[in-house]
Amino acid sequence: MSEPYSTWVDSPRGPIHTGSGDMYVTVGTQLQGVDRSAFRRVADDQLAWLRRVLVTPTGMGDARHKLADTGTVILDGPPGSGRTSAARVLLHEHHQDAGVFHELLPDEEDELSLRDPDLVGGGDRLLLDLSAADVRLWAAARTDLSALRKAVHEQHAHLVVVMPRGNTLDSDLQPYRVEIERPPALEAFRRHLRVHGLSYDQYLRTDPTVTEFLYEQRPMREIATFADLVRRAREAARADDGFAEWCATARRARDDRRKEIAAFVTRLHEGPQRALLITLAMLHGAHADVIHQASRLLLSTLKHPPDEIPLLQRKDLAERLGEISASAGPDGHVRFAELDYDAAIRAHFWNHMPELRQYLGIWTARSVDLNDPHLTQGLRDGLVAKLAGQYLRTGREEGLASLAEDWSTTAPSRARLEAAVHALTCGLNDPAHARSFRQRIYQWCANKQLKGEFAQVLVRVCRDVIASSHPDQALLRLYHLARRERGTAHAAEELCDLVATSGRLRRRLLDRLARSALSPAELRVFLRVCDPVPLIAPYDNARSLVEESGVQNSVIMCWRAVLHGLPRATWQPYAERWLHAATDSEHRGELLLDLIVGAADQCDDKRGATFAELYASARSAESTAPDGAARATATTERLLQKISAAQGIALDDTSPPTESPRGTTP
After folding, report:
1. How many domains does the chain have?
2. Strands (E), 57-109
3. Where is the stretch described as Disordered (predicted)?
4. Pairwise CA distance, residues 127 & 540, whole Å
5. Residues 107-137: pLDDT tens digits?
6. 410 lies in a domain?
7. Rounded to an integer, what distance in angstroms lies between the CA atom of residue 309 and that of residue 524?
8. Chain segment 185-197, per-residue pLDDT in tens
9. How many CB atoms lie within 10 A of CB 255?
10. 108, 359, 451, 627: which has the fewest Cβ within 10 Å?
11. Looking at 132, 164, 179, which one is the last position of a domain?
């Protein structure tokens, strides 16, 4: 190995100086303390919601049977019929303790091939959504489907493929194809209203607005959006308004209001008026105190001249809100009179005042830092989402990414770091830009010198967003952050937490480490993931990872690097845990001993000394063995026998190995 080793500190309480050489990432602590298991629930929560709102389409029963019987189903159907939602619900219904949900992305660079058996883990739920694939991508995927199905069958996993409409399917795959038909639009609309909390008697009656809206063959996503508008219209309506008024309000909110908004803004000549208008559009529904502070902050950000009028002669907030067709309710929260007026205002200023865009980013960062009891985390997230929406709507993903990076490096408070996380989350959740954001995050994690607290933002995004549906991509990104990390071990901790969810992910990480140069940071990652308990635990037909030849080779190479390059004081606690596990497991315990002895046997010029240190560590481990010293002593004797056999020595006493003058034999 070409890289020199150096001393490193496992868990320092403060920053450390790494000296000359490479610049490493230091992950801060301001985003720590949040729920580390969040990513395990995100995908399941989303799938549970889909299951509640989905009206069972024709063909769903057949799809359920095929998936249960064969582990594979291929969904076909017209666009807008809810094929992808049906696919996700099918996978949710097969949730089990083992395995993870994984959306396959065969056209992305850092994804495994569909032919690679390592793509599938025991009990995994796999979605291959090719509904928008072109002819080339579909042809390539179709060629690999047989190999993928075989791996799915062997791993007792489940695979749902959504095929592009109007494309061909090979004869051997036809038995797995199921046609999904679009469910009745009115039934789908009412199901969403029911889940949103509307009572049966409110939405059962026929309404001309709904009838007109549903007359066209609306995609399921548009029906869902309209139902949500009706919910919001009900929440903002007067007490005497009914279902018909809610639906009419929702329908008006869908209309093109560009000319109306342009004419309205033209009538507002004063800077403070427009600042208040923009502020309310970005913080719609916030308390009046928040609106007042944030509008003043916007004027300050824009370096608007101060108001010279004496305080008591100025317009009060109620009068100013009336000028922009808004008012504060009894609870003090401010809203426009019309539904979704705020969205139209945001689009107008973004489209027609481009010089304002950079200032909105600065103002948003300053606004999330406001210290006001009415400024909740939900409001902060909503503000960031509204700004991100404008960037994404106009195809300015690079600007949004740069904004998140800047918020993490320029005076990064906890609120700004949360805002950066949410901005990147918006990009990752946007269907049109998700791929670009995943690739950009990969480049950040693997190659870019990260400043400020940006590394911890990326750790959170990988953990909470990417891992929920793309665990392999999260693994690679966290691995790169962990190998570059100095001063803390947050990325390494999240990486270990991720691989604990899946034996397949642990196998892939061990393989990646074994193929790396294994710097001290990477050795630290290995020592964290080489926990012997999950390695020897059976996961499929009583098999375990440690029984796989590929895993054995990876473990030997990594342990060899540890034993050869790190001082005994560093690796001994991990070796002791390894030996304790060997004591508790009979057959697999022998494998554990074989692997660590095999690693020591490859230490070349330090071979004899390493054997001696390993034997001394085993003796030390006897005093801390959970099941008592007697069984641990027997394990030490077995270890000594394997060391002697590796050196070609016939053991006739219990003398420990010692280093010879040449350092190769005792």
Report:
1. 3
2. 72-76, 101-103
3. 645-666
4. 21
5. 887 788 899 888 998 889 999 999 998 999 9
6. no
7. 64
8. 999 999 999 999 8
9. 10
10. 627
11. 179
